[in-house]
Design brief:
two-stranded antiparallel sheet, Arc Repressor Mutant, subunit A, six-stranded antiparallel sheet, alpha+beta, about 240 residues, Chorismate lyase, 12 strands, globular
Length: about 240
């Protein structure tokens, strides 16, 4: 991916690619030291990257055996520790990522968005609405609200109707900025209205919603996002390290 990432994230991406291309479920990976040497990182970085892959469900660690590639079945695990495109996450699990729905439309800000962006009433914004599917099953609905201009430079996200185009890269390429941090909240909701239609679930189906601000390294709000996850297709993973 073109955006700047931590060394651990780069190592995890390299390991996902190696696993996808060279290993099958049930295969044992080489020792951490060998993997670290191959991808050009320290053994500690390789260990931390593998820990994220365990959270994602790509591999499992068996005492006395080693690190084993898991069967790629069941829900796709999205790690809350990394900022990755959904295509990367889905493809990294050995599934096919497609867009079941994509729309990029201009809109006028409402009171809620005006408070979030700290903008004047009636400001023009972009609404980017996409549904990522896993092997043809709608899995994640994403609504991105973005400015039409950044530092007086016009922002045009219409290329995001292509599944291979990432919002992270579009922002970096057009504005020179990158999304460095996400700040928001996660809550359970029940499907209704457009989420029923777009995610192809019955009314009242349990979803997980994440509302978040996407911030630059300078703490500038680059966009606001709402993400709805189908709980039968996507699980959310977390890998937290206790320091000291």
């Amino acid at each position: 991916m073109a955006m700047v990432r931590t060394l651990k994230a780069q190592a995890a991406a390299a390991l996902r690619e190696i696993i996808r291309d060279e290993y099958r479920p049930g295969d044992r990976l080489p020792p951490e030291a060998k993997l670290a040497e191959r991808i050009g990182v320290s053994r500690n970085t390789a260990r931390e990257a593998l820990a994220d892959l365990v959270v994602e469900g790509l591999v499992e660690r068996k005492w006395g055996v080693g690190t084993i590639v898991r069967e790629r079945t069941g829900p796709v695990t999205v790690s809350l520790n990394e900022i990755l495109s959904f295509q990367q996450v889905i493809d990294g699990h050995g599934h096919e990522a497609t867009l079941a729905h994509a729309a990029v439309e201009p809109m006028t800000s409402d009171e809620g968005l005006e408070k979030l962006f700290d903008i004047a009433p009636g400001t023009a914004l972009w609404l980017v609405e996409r549904v990522f599917a896993v092997d043809g099953t709608p899995a994640v609905l994403i609504r991105d609200y973005a400015s039409t201009h950044y530092h007086d430079e016009e922002f045009d996200p219409r290329s995001l109707v292509d599944v291979g185009v990432s919002m992270l890269d579009v922002i970096r390429e057009q504005t020179g900025q990158r999304i460095a941090r996400l700040q928001g909240a996660l809550d359970p909701v029940l499907a209704d209205g457009t989420t029923v239609a777009l995610l192809e679930v019955p009314a009242g189906f349990p979803l997980v919603r994440v509302k978040q601000a996407c911030l630059s390294a300078h703490e500038t709000v680059l966009l606001h996002t709402e993400v709805y996850y189908r709980t039968d297709v996507i699980t959310l993973g977390l890998n937290r390290v206790v320091r000291g």
